[in-house]
Amino acid sequence: MAPTRSLNRELEGELDKIMSFWEECRPFSAGVEYAMKFIKISVASLNTKQASDKQKQKIYDKIDYIISERIISADETIKEQGLSLFTGTEEDVILTFGGVQLLEMVFKEAHEKRMNFRVIVADAGPEFEGRDLVRRLSAAGIKVTYVLLTGVSFLIDKVTKVFLGASSVLSNGAIVAKVGNSMLATIAKRHQKPVVVFSETYKFSDRVNLDPININEIGDPQSLAAYCVHKNVSRWY
Predict the structure, then answer these.
(1) How many Å apart are CA 103 and CA 195, to the nearest integer?
(2) Lowest mean pLDDT segment, chosen from 106-115, 130-139, 176-185
């Protein structure tokens, strides 16, 4: 730290550089934006009369608070609340999409509580995150079925509930999530299946996306192109 500048000024400058770099790599999700704002406010409110070690410790404490209260404790609360959504008697057939870690925790908690249910994991390319979720759920002893997003319509009649995750929850109640979730929710609505979204409060945003097409995050087209080429080659052979 420069001797003529206070710690909070130094940190504010470094945080601005980090945030600019991250935004160039990928647009901020609501969770990351919340964490960065929280840290910047904490840095700005530092008592510059204290020793630098004490000021740094306050920053560490703030970060630990975000992790423990906003993430870990929130996930524990969501797991407890999620158990109330299982009937416990008749078998629930729960449809989900991709590989949401929070939902994995809910399913494992319900399995430990001996709830009667099975999971249908819908998935889509090019990442196919649902495959890893299926492996982890199966390893935990949970009954699970894997289906591609295009095949959900054939299984939706057997579904009792749809559980989805979210990258952020907007102020109008809309959900921002990975592509495919909207299609799944639309199919569920058409077949009158209840949809439940699981999200921590740090992902809540005061924004409203009036133009969801242009505001959507654009992924790497090369990964999709490589997936398409791979599929064509597989079919050819």
Answers:
(1) 13
(2) 176-185
Least confident stretch, 9-13, 73-77, 124-128, 210-214: 210-214
The angle that helices 7-25 and 30-44 make with each other, rounded to 10 degrees, is 170
Residue 71: pLDDT over 50: yes
List the one residue out of 158, 163, 185 whose CA is nearest residue 91.
158
Q: Please, what are the domains in the chain?
A: 7-78 (no CATH), 87-199 (3.40.50.10470)
**Distance from the first to the final alpha carbon of the chain:** 61
Cα atoms in the 13 Å half-sphere on the side-chain side of 237: 5
C-alpha separations of 132 from 24, 48, 139, 173 in Å = 29, 48, 11, 29
Mind listing the pLDDT tens digit for each residue in 23-34?
A: 676 666 667 777
Ramachandran angles phi, psi of 83, nearest 5°: -65, -30
Neighbours of 218 (CB within 10 A): 7
Asked if omega into 126 is within 30° of 0 (cis), the reply is yes
pTM: 0.76
